[in-house]
Write a structure and sequence with these properties.
alpha/beta, about 250 residues, seven-stranded parallel beta sheet, about 20% strand, 12 helices
Length: about 250
């Protein structure tokens, strides 16, 4: 029990290569798409009754399933109100080279610190059919419990590559013919006018400070999202989702 709860700490996740998956939706997607990575599944009586299909799927997939009390699950979980089910899984081992072959739509996040934002971007990338989410060093851990909860199972649908060097990543994208589009509010090119038909990667920066000028300058183009109302700006996750959907529409238009 203490070992599961300890996965809330980044150092423990790094040392063990494991992470915590909470809630029926995320656990269902983990079992459906990444069952070989499952270490253990823990379910309360209420969770078993409410989500019998997930309970059965875990057994059918050969997962180790443990019946626990509400109190034990609460001690394991990071969420304040666990929903009757958690799992422990092994983190996928995926590098930048693994996701670039044939990639047409990517998102690169630089020094993103908010777990909710990162999880929501991963979910948006999944919804828009992106090939991968790339995350640079000094960002929040993509496999922290809060990011996993915000991702709502999308971690198991779209590859997430973390701890990247931004300069080396931009260079690797360029070598593969993948254009890099930096989002900046004062950029000369507006999103509706951007050419989104070829392979490209959206590049977004820190929630408070945006992209450093040097990083934006290293990208192929700078693109602004028009604001038509009185809002000062969009937050990171909203901006990324808008850009990704613009790309998805262009690819299917």
């Amino acid at each position: 029990m203490r070992g599961v709860a300890a996965l809330a700490r980044r150092s423990v996740r790094s040392d063990t290569g494991r992470f915590l998956v909470e809630g029926p939706q995320a656990v269902r997607e983990l079992i459906r798409y990444a069952a070989p990575s499952v270490v253990d599944v823990y379910v309360t009586p209420d969770g078993r009754a409410r989500h019998a299909e997930i309970y059965s799927a875990a057994y059918a997939a050969g997962c180790f399933v443990h019946d626990v009390t509400d109190e034990v699950l609460a001690a394991m979980a990071d969420a304040d109100t666990p929903q009757g089910m958690v799992a422990v899984a092994q983190q996928p081992v995926v590098g930048l080279a693994d996701v670039l072959d044939g990639a047409r739509l990517l998102v690169l996040l630089h020094e993103v610190r908010d777990p909710g934002n990162l999880g929501t971007v991963i979910r948006g990338a999944d919804a828009t059919g992106a090939d991968a989410v790339l995350v640079t060093a000094n960002s929040v851990d993509a496999f922290s419990p809060k990011v996993i909860r915000s991702g709502a199972g999308s971690h198991f649908h779209v590859p997430v590559v973390s701890r990247l060097d931004v300069e080396a990543t931009l260079a690797a994208l360029g070598e593969r013919g993948i254009r890099t589009l930096a989002t900046q509010g004062d950029a000369p090119l507006a999103l509706p006018d951007a050419d989104l038909t070829g392979p490209h990667a959206w590049v977004l920066g820190n929630e408070a400070h945006g992209l450093p000028d040097a990083v934006a300058a290293a990208c192929d183009e700078r693109v602004a999202i028009p604001i038509y109302g009185a809002a000062e700006s969009l937050n990171l996750a909203m901006a990324a989702t808008v850009c990704l959907y613009a790309s998805a529409f262009a690819r299917r238009g």
